[in-house]
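Appendix B, Record 12. Input sequence as logged:
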Amino acid sequence: MKKVLSILFVFSGMALGVAQQSVEDISGAYHISSNDPHGDSHVIISPDHHFAIAFFGGVLKGTWQKVEDHYLFTYHKEPKVVLYARYNSSIQDSVKVRVGLDANRGFAIRFNSSVNEAFTAIFNEAANCFTYPYIYSQRNSIEQIEIYQQDLRKYAEGEITNSKNYIFSFKPNASYNEFLLTGLPESYSQGGTSQVRFMDGQLFMEDQGGIQKRSEYKDINTEDLEFFEQYFKNEIFPEVLDSNHEQFPYAENPTDQDLVPFIRITPKMMPVNTIVMNPGSLFYAICDD
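Logged structural output:
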């Protein structure tokens, strides 16, 4: 999400003038101070019932509606694991899988395997140094890709847990020879709703005190406003991934084949308690001390 990150750095430093207060118009820009070393967050609320929360490394989005004396914010739920596929005639005698999953989220993978076969960790334990893109290749066609994700949430002692590990099973057409495996952090896949109140020009969100409106919507920096309005409209993971989308693989001097769109493959999600793991990992990424 290079474009998202770059615009966030611009947005996080922009000057927002204090707006005239309005108890009736919730739209605008708000600033949330934080002691987190990653910095503060920003809330953007549009008049056409969209909102976004921008923080270091990402943007959550959703829709809002007025319900009696409060507002209901509904967060957009994104998939944890996404697979795209295409046929690329320039790839000869091999099948390639581009991997863009986070090494710290407990992912493992297997190809064309039966139910009881072992998984292989995508990255080595304690991976801490990355040089993307990571591309796995094999000669045989791929008719099934399965991703295991361990539930890495932390629970307090005595807390009732609803810990669930999942296998995401993708079954693409065997004619595809290039794949893009990606996803987003846990915070994007939670979804859900929250009640928000707006009084005397301040926004009251869950676990937050009053957040002062810093700017009316129309007064937000033009570049940032264009970014968020596009972000409200566009899917992070569309059904067809074309070369205009920020998730599309970068090529310095693309050929026609490099620009062929990818098709998103729908997985079957299966809860699982334990799996068998192979030693080693698909990729090794670690820095010397």
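The radius of gyration is 22 Å.
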